[in-house]
Fold TIM barrel protein.
Amino acid sequence: MPRFAANLSLLFCELPYLDRFAAAARAGFEAVEILFPYDIAARDTRRALIANGLQLVLINAPPPNYTGGMPGFAALPGGEDRFRHDIRRVLRYADELRAGLIHVMAGPAQGAAAQETLVANLQWAADHAPGQRFTIEPLNDTDQPGYFLNDYALAAEVLAAVDRPNVGLQYDAYHAQMIHGDAAGIWDRYGAGAFHVQIGAAPDRSEPGRGPGHGPVDFAALFAAIDASGYAGWVSAEYTPSTRRTEDSLGWLT
Ligand SMILES: O=C(O)C(=O)[C@H](O)CO
Ligand SMILES: [Mg+2]
């Protein structure tokens, strides 16, 4: 079985932010990810990680524009100065929190100029912080209308153009299923070399499971394919629990 991490921006949200760490540890997780930790002093998040023996896998950048705002702007021509400013800021957080991965969000954009901007911004980030690993993740059009990176083939094209060893794919079974209708096939085609994996059922983005209320993805088979591919990173549970308490949604872990 893969090593599973808990996304604390979606899991354990029935608890205040700083209490989610202990709840994740009690549930057996050894690693977590936090999409936007920027409203909280990094030292408080760091303390909660250490107190609960947790590793931080990933944070998102640039901040803090997701909830109600623009989902990133790395592909927006003209936003380069702001991009650099925000990457410098997110690197300070990543450093203090020991976040292994930074997910760079492309934002709403279209066309060749957007693609060139995204590639150039990612190259700048990769060269500016060669010891840091960055990811990009295709997001589906229903959740993120107009988001530039909305397809796995496009992500592969962007990564080939970026051509840096510290920039890689963030595969999310939920988005892969929503975009292409075939989460397993997309893993088989694009999973090799992925930096990070996230999971959630589609279309309801609930806990991994199959059938009524969860959708068609066979997660046991997907986990086996991920293991067979040699992927050694974390597989992060990024879903909205269908149960009131997150721990009651964790049956899929066993
Ligand atoms: O929406 C997702 O699947 C993500 O992983 C993004 O990072 C959301 O911020
Ligand atoms: Mg995701």
The mean pLDDT is 95.
